[in-house]
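Bug #77: duplicate submission created two jobs. Keeping one. Sequence:
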Amino acid sequence: MTAEPSYLLDSSAVLAWLFREPGGAMVEPVLARSVMTTVNLAEVLRRAEARGYLRSSDELTADLGALIDFQYIVPEPDAKRCAELVQVSYAQREKRKTPALSLGDGMCIAVAERLELPVMTSDRAWKDLEDLFRTEVTLIR
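Kept job's structure:
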């Protein structure tokens, strides 16, 4: 990656691009300027295999690695912030009528906050929780 990243990508955004789903075209122009956590890469690999993606995990990792920088080691403060975000989302899910964040969701948001990048996702529930985040959420659909 030569330029500063523009987005941190959630696994849902990458999957939308990979499977040519609605919103995927919005992801394509920012791929080369984006980063993704290895936690979210694991989600992409698992979901791609479950959906019958024809390339192996090694091939898909190499393909994505040529486009997206996902070689991040998550520092302890990100792990703590992730846990905080997930816990708060669970505590507020009945009041807000929104689903709680997953571990992958929380990690994606925590790293985006640290890197001061907006996060790109297809998960509409994040918009309802955005006031809990210190980053902007961009929905792809």
